[in-house]
Design a protein that fits this description.
Layout (H helix, E strand, L loop, with lengths): L21 E7 L5 H6 L7 H19 L5 H7 L6 H4 L6 H7 L8 E6 L6 E5 L3 H15 L4 E6 L12
């Protein structure tokens, strides 16, 4: 029955990105309430938009593990139709970031997306981290004159863990 989640089909697989990938996170100096961001989402999606996202979700993990990486393919696989278009108005300048930052014009860039519900913006990259972060910050500052911080993060394969001290 489709009204209940399937049982005994899930498993865990630890997937590894290409070791060159790092995450550039741009953090605006304002907060979004996740409930408000979720409230922007529609109750229903078109089949075309659902298929669009499902195709990209299926291929993105594979692309992130390749060597050599294919930035234009990764950027395309990071496109979204299920949440980002509806939340753009909550993050002034985000639409311009998506339109401006492409791997062809920013060497090392793999793709850009919202981090969760926002307002932080995530860029996957292999080099030129500062140039990518500063370009995102500059676009956002033109739309909203507030402070933006940024960090370059490594992929964490362990996640949250508890350790004896």
């Amino acid at each position: 029955s489709l009204d209940k989640p399937p049982k005994d089909i899930a498993s865990h697989h630890q997937y590894h990105f290409n070791n060159d990938i790092k995450m550039v996170v741009v953090i605006p100096d304002f907060h979004l309430v996740t409930k408000d961001a979720r409230g922007r989402l529609p109750q229903h999606y078109s089949r075309e938009d659902a298929v669009f996202n499902a195709q990209r979700c299926a291929v993105l993990p594979y692309l992130l593990g390749e060597n050599p990486l294919r930035p234009s393919k990764i950027s395309e696989a990071m496109r979204d139709r299920l949440h980002q278009p509806y939340r753009m108005g909550l993050i002034p300048g985000f639409e311009q970031v998506l339109q401006t930052l492409e791997p062809e014009s920013y060497p090392g860039l793999l793709g850009v997306c919202l981090s969760g519900a926002g307002p932080s913006i995530l860029a996957l990259a292999t080099s030129n981290f500062e140039r990518i972060a500063e370009a995102i910050c500059a676009i956002l500052r033109q739309a909203q004159d507030i402070r933006y911080d940024w960090q370059v993060l490594e992929v964490d394969y362990d996640g949250a863990t508890c350790r004896d001290v």
